[in-house]
Amino acid sequence: MEKIIFAGLTINKVSIKDLLFNKVMLLSYILLGLACVGILEIFDLRYFSEAATAHASGMDPTNPALKEAMKLAVFGTVGEVSREVPWTLFIVNYMYMIYTGSGIIFLVALAELMNMHLVAKVAAGFMVTGISMVFAGLFTIATDLNMLNMLWMILTPNVNTGMWLMLPLYCTYIPFVLFEIYLILTNKRELAKRLALPILVLSIGVDLVEYFIQAKLFSMNTARHLWTEFPVLMFYFIISAFVSSLGIMGVYSYLVHKNKFEYKELMEKIRKAMLFFISILAIYEVFGYMAVDKDWTFLILFGPFKYVYFLGYILLALALPFLLVIKPGKPIWTLISSISVVIGGYVGRFLFVYGGNANPMSNRFGTGYETYDFYDIASHFNYVKPHLGEILIVFGSVGVCLLIYKLFDSLFSIGDLREH
Amino acid sequence: MNYAMALNYQNCINCKACETACKEENGVQLGAHKQRIWVGAVEGTIFGKPYMNLYPSQCNHCINAPCVNVCPTHASHVVAGGIVKVDPSMCILCKGCMEACPYDARFIDDTMVAVDKCTFCDHRIEEYGTTACQATCPTKVRLFGDLDDEESDLVQLLKTKRFFFQKEKSGTLPKLFYIVPDDEHYAKQSISHDTIIHTWDDFKPVYNYARDLRSIEWKR
Amino acid sequence: MKVEISRRRFLQSSVALSVLGGTVLSSTDIMASSSQKEKLDNVLMKKVPTICEMCVNKCAVIAQVQNGVVVKLDPNPYFPKSKNMLCARGAAGIHALYDPDRLKYPLIRDGERGDGKFRRATWDEANEYIKDKMVKILDEEKDNRSCIGYCAGEGMAEHTYKSFMADKFGSTNFINHASICLQTAVSGYALTIGGYGQADLNNAKYVIMGGANRAEAIVTPDTMDLFKRTRGRGTKLIVVDPRFTNTAAHADTYLAIKPGTDLAFVLALTYQVLIKEIYNRTYVKNNFNGFEEYRKHIIESGYTPEWAEKITGIPAKDICRVATEFMANAPQSIYYQGRRSTFAKNDFQLRRAQAIFTALGGGIDVKGGIVFGKKLPLDGHEINIPMYANAKGRIDKKAAAIIGGSGSWIAWRNMVVEGTTPYPIRGLFVYKQNPMLCVPNTAKTKQMLEKLDLVVVIDTMPSDTAMYADVILPECTYLEREDPIKSFAGVEPSIALRQKVIDPMYESKPVLEIMKGLATKLSKPLWEITKKYDEDVQEELEGLEKDESEEDYYEENGFNLADSFEENQEHINEEIFTKQYGKEAWTLLRQKGIFYPNMMKNFEKLDNNSYNYYPEDKKNYTVVKLENENEAEEIDTCVNPRDIAEVRRLFSTPSTKIECVLASMQKKGIATMPTWIDTDYVEVPKGKFKFISGRHAQFTQNATQNNIMLLELMNENFIWINDKDAKLLDIKFGDMIEVTSKVGQVKIKAYPTAKIVPNTVFYIHGFGAKSTGLTFAHRNGASDNEIIEDRIEPVFGSAIMHDTIVSLRKV
Predict the structure, then answer these.
(1) Which CATH number covers residue A245?
(2) Least Cα separation, residue C696 to chain B (angstroms)
(3) The complex's ipTM?
(4) Do A158 and B71 touch (CB under 8 A)?
(5) Best CATH choice for the domain C682-810 from the list 1.10.8.60, 2.40.40.20, 1.10.20.10, 2.60.120.10
(6) pTM (predicted TM-score)
(7) Is B186 at the interface with chain C, CB within 8 A?
(8) Contact flag C9-B16 (C-beta cutoff 8 Å)
(9) Which residue of A56, C15, C645, C660 lies most exposed, with the fewest beta carbons within 10 A?
(10) How many interface pairs between A and C have CB atoms less than 8 angstroms apart?
């Protein structure tokens, strides 16, 4: 293929057709299409719900639209957000995408620091996968927030909050990682070599800060004891992210490198890393729940979430992969383990967010869960099914990930091995 | 000025007069879950005999409000008088405040696409001296007033009665004072054994300290 | 954007606008600068004191009007009766005013009766229609005015309507809602102690409430006083009820009782008190008539606590304890009168027994007991009442032992349905009432309405009854009219005035104007009918003096039906009030909405929760005339409440004493003394349930069934079933249950709970409307009267509400 050299980068000369309409891009368009449908549904619920206030009838009592809105208010449900479970699939998805993406970048940096040359050779692909996932996560947040008022984040910031700190964090993090990728791709090897170590160290530093801020975001929520009492939440996020990241890396390696010579060795490295981190995560799970408020622990371990926890998370993210990677063997085992961990990791994030909201806040006095309506039974467990729109947006975020990755790949062939 | 409310909840008959008055006074969105204030009921049986605890409640306007602490744009802020309010034009719907509030006091107002909650009726304090819910209650459960005003009915009441808070261990320093019922039997039935009972003397220094610390941030 | 009005507030405040504005503005500031907006608000804000009409209590309200829109209803602190409170229904009055389904203009039936098809008409058209029909009917009935019946629900304007139908039009067939309400309770007390009175719950030390539910059927000031003093703060409350109501939750003792057995409980209490001789002997000696006979009757009948335990399910030791405690706290002990509908066949005897029991403690006409209070005088509005010779007496005269002007709803209706009326009943006027939902056995009410030739409904909402009308006349709500001034009796009496807050909306009118319009239309045509058939009038017209014209006779003798509606209500009120209290007081009344003597001097705000109205020495606890006037001075200086109680009084009874024996009842076949008759009690067959009804604090009967603000609090009714019974039938919360009785069937969701006694089911009254005109109430929940059997108690013909047996089936 013809190449163009520009600013130290070797760019593939691809036709618009190849750039925008190859198979992966088409797939991502379909997924993005689903996301658009989801966004329409969510925005309709959020901005255009038939909602009426107590003062509305005084102004125009006979308005038929008002009558409908009143009927909906009393006999149906209005609006997007549930009071009991405000953080839903959006948060689960953003957690998964961003933490896993950052985890990949973190792991690559660590591997390079430990002089694993093989990983250094395939770093480009992993890094771009990582940053694509981060973008996918940010895309999810963007659809979750009310972007109309975003200007206030800059005008009147509250710099002590985890939520706000994410703004400067990603404004710094993304350019930084893009610069790292540039260093990997550039043919100005001298520059790259000189900057390598400081950038690496900075990278690890920034990653740690990132996980610290994410942990701060959750642990500042005094109400949800699952998040505030989980021991060293930052560490938990890192370890659990690493497990999923290794899963993504395993699947990626299969998809992109399976025909390469280095495939077996790469998978072996991933296997070892996975074994290590799964073991730590398993120990963490055991001790973690011992520290958490029993109201939450019971709901997750012995209550309505127990099947999801044991079959969806423990089995898929820990038990099965552990059995598959404990002995060195064919890469296929690592691959299966990777797939299992990717799914299990998602379930883990789901449990974290939904589990944190599962214990109702209505036990305000320690005497039992309150009912607010005369004809009602006290709820011991809060769970709200995600809207269809949210699920479609999750698919869409995968589309975003594929789109960004493929753009990079088409332009820079990041799937190739590079000497570092 | 530090506004608070005492609730003599043993009087409550769950008539929902307060809920309706609040909705009408503040033009709150219609809907059973769109409540700024509510009465929670805990029912059960003891040896087959039914019992009912009624707990009127609302936003606690905490001095160390976690909702204010987590709001990225300061949409959730405290105004003069220690009242926690939300500016809907600044709310980015991150829902962090809803997650942070231990009392489930907040909800989304779909007509404003922002978070909404009790405001201690701050628009009518000057004229009426009190909130809509306090004024309308048939059995006079609530008493609204200024903690810093030694002459106010609220302080006079708190000096003579013992009280407790909701979820005190969450460290939010709430300002809804639940008066311990005179009847021992009902007190035992409606207060859990690990709730800390306070008197004015032991609580005031802590609150003064916290108030002095946080009131620098109270705007307008 | 689908919904335009006031909804998209967020667009007002979006960042785009504020950035354009260049400064940091909040949403409320967007429209105008804050100080400007405040000024605007003050100019356009009006506060009008008025009286609430959402239930019978008539609490005082201050309505806030902004730009001609009522935005808030606040309590008015000046009223001693409602003491600065407004319940959920009061606050939701705004949504009765702005209800989207409200009747807006007169309607005339345009199809078969009951299919709900109406055509819009002008007031003139509607009145013309009524006139044509009435002329035809009265011509056929030879001017028997009583062939048109009329009924009304309670309201401050009810009197205006009644004065037209009874006094001017001349019908004797008034079916008062009292017979589906507290007629029996009131009469039971009135015949025994000379009046119904009010319970002084502000000072009582011991209160027994049998079936009364002050926490949910809010009554001022009872509800307000009671719950501040229970739980060790001065009052001991004993609640006797088949349900663990919210009132029972506040009680010091809750006694679960089988429905319909209250009389056995009271008789056992009486027995205990008589046997142990712990009643107030001095009081009995001074103030009781027929005591010895009564005592003999109670003891010989063997109404022991053990006997009562078998019938009621209340342990005998509890009955003994309650009896002892009651008398220990007397005379500040009250067996609360109760103010609801009749529970069972023996209700009259029950209320009598309650009254006698309270009197045994001496707690009548004393502080802390049942007090009669005083009423500030106000003259009535004079009406020139014509005499109609052909107007026959009411048809249900013989339906029960004592049928007064109120009649018996069920007996009256059933006579019309069965065709057993002494003369034809051709029409019915309905004001502010919804018989389809509020009278037992809805199927028969439907039949009655279908049989009539003319049904006119005056209402604010298109209720189920309105759907069966020939003509529907829209009345305006209470916020749109001035009503007759009213004097409220009590310990702290006062006068309250309902003032118009905003002008009537759409084409609605206050009932005064409706009656005026109708009267004007009907007067002359009906006069012609009278002249044609009324022999007395014919005679008098023949004997007229030369200078007296027929027109003069017509005017002087009240045959001009519109003459009592000439003046507007405000004028009438001013005349009546200033006559007694003067012009200055009138200005004060209009300003504050309330008046009582020395109000501005004595009214005091102690804190946001307590107010003083009358000084303690001016409160009217003891008002009954004493036999010996000299003792009045002694009473003032008395310290011991017992001494005050024991003084011999002249009660408003035939013997001026507490009547234990009502000899006059004997010839009517009614027991002269409270007696338990086993055959009167309705047993519950195995596998079936007894159905009882009642209230919640968020609704007033069925009047609020379409009120969106209240439906938000509770959007449908559920049937209460004992949780153990539910388990046997495999019924869980929310399951749909089919409830069948002898007269009807409904479907309703289940609420299994420990709060109701076994073999009994309950759901609240006021739901289950079938009217297609009510968007929110249409087929929402279930109506109790659809399944309640139409039995009446034998003394006054009141509807028995709690004797219906039902079977349940899960669907």
Answers:
(1) 1.20.1630
(2) 8
(3) 0.95
(4) yes
(5) 2.40.40.20
(6) 0.93
(7) yes
(8) no
(9) C15
(10) 93
